[in-house]
């Protein structure tokens, strides 16, 4: 970026326009959005094997079938240090790029927000694990607001919230649009709603085993496994 002065010719409106144009160029040259997206994308890819190999499933007999719960330990082991390192690396790269362009870097609020959200996510997950170690897992589906909050403070959700801060700092409209779309995908549940299920109200759900000769009576409501799917 050059530092050449442009004469305003004594015109206040032109001077104001030149100042606004210069400020816009500075904000544009301060942007290094690709650095944040690249580092966070790589961190997400590396998280896949952690989530796969550290997934622990616990199954126990329940009626004629089994009831299973799973524990994503890899999320808690990997994401807190990975996010802290990622935000530190993003801040460092932003500063280096800004210095090469002869500008300052306004990345500190973004890095601090990301680190704070990482600490919040870790504390929430640890708190849930401590709670479930002394209480039974809820048998009924959790409310929608709880699932939405859970997705919001999960790593994918906190990444999106921090990106909103970065979009505001850079006044980057394309990044804002991208982040809002990303958060919509992350926060919206990938189903058609628990209350819209047809299977529990279909008569053959309770009569199928009797009609197939596998038992003498119809199933009762207590014998249906509603979680994770309403199957006999």
Question: What does this molecule look like?
Answer:
The protein is mainly α. The chain folds into two domains: 175 residues; 29 residues, no CATH class. Helix content is 62%, strand content 7%. α4 runs antiparallel to α6.
Question: Topology, please?
Answer:
Elements: H1 12-30, H2 33-53, E1 55-62, E2 65-72, H3 73-100, H4 108-134, H5 144-153, H6 155-170, H7 173-187, H8 204-211
Antiparallel strand pairs: 1-2
Helix pairs in contact: 2-3, 3-4, 4-6, 6-7
Key words describing this protein structure:
two-stranded antiparallel ribbon, mainly alpha
Low-confidence stretches: none
Distance between the amino and carboxyl termini = 68 Å
Largest sheet: 2 strands, antiparallel
| Largest sheet strand order | 1-2
Query: What would you report as the Rg, rounded to the nearest angstrom?
Result: 26 Å
Total count of domains: 2
Summarize the structure.
The protein has 8 helices and 2 strands, in the order ααββαααααα.
